[in-house]
Amino acid sequence: MRIRKYDFDYSRRAFMEKVATGAGAGVLAPLWSTIAHSADDISKAYPDELLSIEMYTKGRIKPGDVVTADNVDIVKDLLEPICYRQVKEQGRRLNIVESTKDVTTLFNHDYLDVTLRNRGRAAFGPDGNVWTDGKVGSPWIGGLPFTDPKDGNQMIADMTLAWGKHDYSQYAIPAWSLNPQGEVAYSQDFVWCELNTTARGDGTVFNGMSDKLRLQTVFFTGPNDIKGSSFLSIWYYDQRKFPDLYGYFPAFKRVRQFPTNQRFEPLVPGITFFLSDAWAAGDPMLTWGNYKIVERKPFLGAVSNRNWNGADAKWHRPFHGGPKGKTFLDSYFSLVPEAIVLEAEPTGYPRAPVSKKRVWIDARNCHFMSTITTDRRGEIWKQFELGSGQFKNGNAVLNDEKGRPDWSWLHVHSHDIQSNRMSILLHAKEVAGGYKTTFQTGGVDVYNKFLTSSAIARLGQ
Predict the structure, then answer these.
(1) Are β-strands 407-416 and 130-132 bridged in parallel, bridged antiparallel, or unpaired?
(2) DSSP states of 298-334
(3) Angle of CA points 148, 154, 156, to nearest 5°
(4) Which of 94, 138, 223, 287 has its CA 20 to 30 A from that of 202?
(5) Which helix (H) or strand (E) covers residue 82, if one does?
(6) pTM for the complete prediction?
(7) H or E stretch at 31
(8) How far apart are CA 461 and CA 454, in angstroms?
(9) What DSSP character marks residue 451?
(10) CA 357, CA 346: separation in Å to the nearest integer?
(11) CATH code for position 432
(12) How many structural domains is the chain composed of?
């Protein structure tokens, strides 16, 4: 039995002090020192009420409960504003599960290992980029560059340098876009591939591309009216540079290069997802600015293995809420003991329709949980909410190459609250065309198959 030494408002005061002084994560002890000592139990870093929704709400909400319009005000301070409105006004339900104290379930295992191994070796250079041991020209060698981000620049670096926390990721994604009446107006199947050339977990530079950060392709496999549409982004390691963006459309039968700052438009009709939205860090970090950590607080995030329905042959999950019962995926939320709230402005985009974004990030793995953007008038515009967790749920499991449960994002709600249009992206097992989710190349030359301009033309034919 733990003897309580702290009153109920101790954590709130501690978080306020940390924001003011630029201190790192953890309340009772430094978080990452605790993780380095025992990643499977971080209870020494936080008081009990930050690891138990039942204690935090004084028994009014507990694991197994469902947050609905009837009780959402109990946890209003734990939600971002659009999620609160979804529950209060649109029939969304949040299934509550236990908080995790085991950080190994919040990472791809190899990425956590390399993060701990390279801890303390990242530094910003005079050009604003992250370099290993501060040596300009030596790209980051893998893992979180700043395990304990103390300012907004360190925080965005953690989010930008390795989006999916794997050297190679291939996501099979069915997407449904709903109109304001709650009906599915558009549906798409697509594949998203991302290959880090630097900042890799294996410490190598892919094909000698030390001047690049990543190669990323998205190609649509259905329905027929957009099948074959493909896009390739080539990211430079220098975060002051815009990516090269190429697209292929079957109707024109050629690859064309798009304007480098065309980041705030739907990839295909109907979808509310922009390239800028990806991972809450869809643009090079130095094309945005005025980064600042504005708050640290507990938060309800869709962080749970329960968000992977491995028992279903397609990994699909039920829908609910909205006018026709189709607007939200059934999702499982847990109390995150410390969320870092980051603000930023698109300083490199004078015509951007976005004036600011606010991102809620899990301090335990520096991975985002939700983003809210505001329009040029400063009005709340769009939510980009991520569910994440291990591929382990009951008897179902998807292992990595070493036989350990793998980890990734599991779903996205992309909600334009002004037009009330919703796009739902599900991380599925497979999509039309037979393309499957995988985190290994399996000996396949994925670079030439998916990640060149000739590859996207071939995929579109």
Answers:
(1) unpaired
(2) EEEE-B-GGG--TTSTT----EE-TTTT-SEE-EEEE
(3) 115
(4) 287
(5) helix 81-90
(6) 0.96
(7) helix 31-37
(8) 11
(9) S
(10) 9
(11) 2.50.20.10
(12) 1
CA dist., res. 359 & res. 112, Å (int): 22
Measured in residues, the chain has a length of 461
Residue 394 sits in which domain range? 1-461
User: Are residues 291 and 343 in contact, defined by beta-carbon separation less than 8 angstroms?
Assistant: yes
Structure-block tokens of residue 133: 């041991």
> What 8-state DSSP symbol labels residue 265?
S
Determine the Cα–Cα distance for residues 282 and 278; give it in Å rounded to an integer: 4
- Sorted by sequence, the CB contacts under 8 Å of residue 448 that are 6+ apart come out as 455
Q: What is the pLDDT of residue 25?
A: 83
Q: Return the pLDDT at 11.
A: 80
Our CA angle for 108, 110, 112, nearest 5°, is 70
Residues of the chain short of pLDDT 70, as ranges, are 1-8
The CA distance from 425 to 445, in Å, is 27
Burial of 460 (0-12, 13-18, 19+ CB in 10 A): buried
What string of DSSP letters covers 330-369? -EEEEEEEEEEEEEEE-TT-TT-SEEEEEEEEETTTTEEE
Q: Which two tokens stand for residue 103?
A: 């950080």
| Contacts made by residues 397-403, CB under 8 angstroms, sequence distance 24+ | 397/310, 398/310, 400/108, 400/109, 400/110, 400/439, 400/440, 401/440, 402/109, 402/110
95: closest CA among 318, 336, 410, 333? 333
Token duo for residue 344: 């930023």
